[in-house]
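Sample entry copied in:
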Amino acid sequence: MIIPDALQIKQLDAATVVAQNFRSSDLMERAAKGITNYLLHDNPHFEFFIINCGTGNNGGDGLCIARQLLQAGKNVKVNICGDVHKSSADFALNFQRLQTQFPLVIHIITNENSIPSFDCDCLIDCLFGTGLNKPINGLPALIIEKMNMADAIILAVDIPSGLQSNTLSVEPIVKADCTISFEFPKLVFLFPENAKYVGQWMIQNIGLIDTKSAGLHQHLHFLTADDIQPLFSERQIFAHKGSFGHVLTIGGSPGMEGAAAMSGLAALKTGAGLSTITATNLTVEHPEMMYTGFDNIIATISSKKINAVSIGPGLGNTISTFQILSELFQAYRQPIVVDADALNCISEHPELLNKIPPNAILTPHPKEFERLFGAYQHWFELPNMMIQLAQKYQVIILYKRAYTLIACPDGNVYFNSTGNAGMATAGSGDVLTGIISGLLAQGFTPKEAALAGVYMHGLSGDLALENNNNSNLIATDIIHQIPLAKAIIMGTE
């Protein structure tokens, strides 16, 4: 799915109202119903709600939620900050409805002294929505500061108040425990500095029309199972190991054989027919893999009919690494996966960047990215910076972190939806390299392999965490879950 900006969301709302032939207030009612159902069914222990509303459409959402909760028998108080006579049309309509049915629950905050206590089970933030384009000050700022000190679970509707959707934000900002976004994630949810404001976030479907039908186009995407599933197909009955390709993993220097072994094994678990790794110590415990030396790698690629190459896991960063990369980039012009020590070597020899085969997949973590391409000032710069780099060098760049970013030469950036903090463990990146190279060997295009590989890797990590009862993970835990992750993606599990 795309990650729309504030203007596109407004356009999509308007297009939905026209296409479905109803009023904008009906769409607001639908959005509020989703929030109400979540509160009633997923949090039945909540009895007392306080809803803080501005006078825009986000405040209108809050008034709808209040009325629906009251109709369900819950205890609700509504605080309004702003002039109700200068409100949005949908706010005004829902204010009238609430005032008619439940007039005693409404309190207008006019000054600092009229800010009430926020002691309740659940404090709902509906002060400002995605249309906010400047820092908050004055009375709303005081309200937010008091909200953040309240002894209550804070739920932000659509976006935490004070958090601007399309630019850098400054405090005060509501620090929500949970944020429910309508239909799409907000770009700002995916940046690490905003985690303390957004909390756990989820998406509530409100039945907006398809973005293509609305004529919306965006180069930012949130990668989901719907994007990945069509890339996979069932194995044919007469297929053989040669049908699924042969992966060569170049790595495994003395003392680091395990990195190459994990990468090669991950390629097999992903579905590659054959996996060969370079290694100086051939006592690695997986008999399914084949082994070769570092001598004359190009000849090895030719003689073994290699379909996909990855380089870097446990390779080491020595003069021999530079020589191997130089030889490989000159003689082998097919898409490859470049990881770990190979990236470190390129950062020390930047002339190699212009020699990387077209559509190669680079998989740097944040420090490797900075060494390769330089620093960026803030997260909003990163997606466009990655697009420019991907187009300049005609490569695919994976920026490994929570919500891993994948930038493609076609100008699109994808944020991954799977994965967890437990995957920040030694060898996890080697596993990712193996998954991607395994998909390349099976005939996936570089873009398909990058997108599907990142998603499958994250899902495998999620399954591993679940099966380990949320305890610490190691890389092999992730490997063991790859077949199940693949089956879930394909819909066969």
About this structure: The two ends are 24 Å apart (CA to CA).
